[in-house]
């Protein structure tokens, strides 16, 4: 496969590092993307900008362009909604207060999940700490890795399909803002909000169209359409909405290192769409060598 030719000029705008639930430090994530032929990337750890500086250094040293990003947790009714945010001001007080609140809530929630599992299995918080980088946004993926280390699951996916599944008695949700609040916060911080994997199968399935229209009116910039978790029927509906509202559409891998099978560049964003994101973001600047 000639990955370089395939990805020439295109961007992979959704990558995770150990600052959240990826398995590699930011510089390794950027290097992995470079090996897969990418020259424009975004680091989008969950609810944190902690990896930006390391990712920027790596991108500069490899001659790449880094678009600073984040994947902000939100929630609509029972659905978990992930909002990709690009080029916002990382020091914006309101957005920072919200991400601090989400990360705090995630920590308490993870402890409750682990305590519940610990009533049925030989499993403790120390097992999770051993799988989590200092300061990382804690999520079920870290608990999954700890379950794997304990021999209680074969891999992350098996843990998510088993002990960590919401149907199991151990599941605890975490606080997250509603999507409208999330979009407004990102816009107010000068950022470009794009809904990540907006049309998955199952529990988190696509937001109702009237809700999407409300988000668009509030400044939602687009949808991440080319993502392995989106259904084909959902992609068609969202492409149609995007065309009607002249929205940005992106594609990305959602690389998590060894945490998921997703590989850098498996889905990409066109240079035209990357340029639209760069034009629209006013809170921070792309990092170029
Ligand atoms: P949480 O936000 O803590 O509830 O955990 C959800 C996160 O787990 C998402 O951001 C995904 O990256 C990850 N995730 C969800 N399902 C799986 C899976 N089957 N295998 C690996 N990671 C997953
Ligand atoms: Fe994740
Ligand atoms: Fe996500
Ligand atoms: Zn993601």
Descriptive report:
With 289 residues, this protein is α/β, with parallel strands linked by helices. Helices cover 40% and strands 15% of the residues. The chain is built from eleven helices and eight strands. It has helices at 3-7, 26-35, 52-61, 93-120, 125-129, 140-149, 156-161, 179-188, 209-217, 232-245, 271-280; strands at 11-15, 40-43, 65-76, 79-86, 192-195, 222-226, 248-251, 287-288. Strands 1, 2, 3, 4, 5, 6, 7 and 8 form an eight-stranded mixed sheet that branches. Helix 9 links the parallel strand 5 and strand 6 (222-226). Residues 14, 16, 71, 196, 254 line the site of zinc ion.
Structural topology:
Layout: H1 3-7, E1 11-15, H2 26-35, E2 40-43, H3 52-61, E3 65-76, E4 79-86, H4 93-120, H5 125-129, H6 140-149, H7 156-161, H8 179-188, E5 192-195, H9 209-217, E6 222-226, H10 232-245, E7 248-251, H11 271-280, E8 287-288
Helix pairs in contact: 2-3
Core attributes:
289 residues; alpha/beta; 8-stranded mixed sheet; 8 strands; disordered N terminus; binds adenosine monophosphate; binds fe (iii) ion; binds zinc ion
